[in-house]
Write a structure and sequence with these properties.
disordered N terminus, 24% strand, 9 strands, 246 residues, alpha/beta, Rossmann fold, binds S-adenosyl-L-homocysteine, two-stranded antiparallel ribbon
Length: 246
């Protein structure tokens, strides 16, 4: 079982004294070069060599995205040292940033064309969004928790991802305005496949979605002229997709 977004332990037991202002270290992160920048680049290389390639992800475009997107910028400041570990991390609001391998797996499974349009449901930290934005022409991402949507938008703007469009809303409805999508990646788990997402898939497009209750399987659904085909892939644990309209 790959531990993706299992409910994180609350961040208890941390030092209650006020932390140093974030601004004191921010310039180093934003520059992205110098000693810290090199350190994080090395950590990304290790992450790819140890967690991604050995598990069978070899597409150079996906590998390149995993090597370039600064994952440490998408986690809370007090967990940047854990950013490249082989696990999900808490990002607040009872949500997590997915394990790097799962982000790479879903991106690979989505077979994103370079000129393609992608819909993501569950922006969370915005990390998967940035990976998708490295591969696609345009990325549309929906997040139901408003502060997370706002924070992800800020991070992505600061890092210069200008082909990303984020909205706060319920992903069960998809985002009809910009449909059809060449790929749809869902990073929270519904108990059944949301039909609006199938409707918004382009011909030949792929919907990558973890479906199930306490544990799930990532389904890869492809749209054909004659209908849909479904491939069952790896077992995972994601946070539930909330707000289903019964
Ligand atoms: N891809 C994210 C993972 C975030 S966890 C990352 O890399 O950080 C899943 C996210 O899905 C959470 O932020 C959660 O709030 C969001 N979510 C849950 N149900 C949703 C829904 N119905 N519509 C949109 N977002 C939803």
């Amino acid at each position: 079982m790959v531990n993706v977004n299992s409910a994180p332990a609350a961040l208890t037991g941390s030092d209650p004294r006020p932390k140093a202002p974030a601004t004191s270290i921010e310039p180093l992160y934003t520059r992205g070069h110098g000693h810290l920048g090199r350190l994080y680049a090395e950590q990304r290389q290790l992450m790819v060599n140890q967690q991604i390639i050995p598990r069978g992800i070899t597409d150079p475009r996906v590998i390149n995205a995993m090597l370039t997107v600064p994952r440490h910028r998408f986690v809370p400041l007090d967990s940047t040292q854990f950013a490249y570990r082989d696990e999900p991390l808490p990002i607040g609001h009872n949500q997590t940033i997915s394990q790097p391998y799962i982000v790479a797996f879903m991106t690979d499974a989505a077979s994103i064309p370079g000129n393609g349009r992608v819909l993501e449901v569950g922006t969370g930290s915005g990390y998967q969004t940035a990976i998708l934005a490295t591969l696609a022409a345009e990325v549309y991402s929906i997040e139901i928790v408003a502060p997370l949507a706002q924070q992800a938008e800020r991070t992505l703007r600061q890092l210069g991802y200008d082909n990303v469009h984020i909205k706060q809303g319920n992903g069960y409805a998809g985002w009809a305005e910009y449909a059809p999508y060449d790929a749809i990646v869902v990073t929270a788990a519904p108990t059944r496949i949301p039909s609006a997402l199938l409707d918004q898939l382009a011909m030949g497009g792929k919907l990558v979605v973890p479906v199930g209750y306490s544990s799930q399987t990532i389904l890869v659904i492809t749209r054909h002229l004659t209908g849909f085909s479904t491939e069952y892939t790896i077992p995972v644990r994601f946070v539930p997709m909330v707000g289903e309209d019964h």
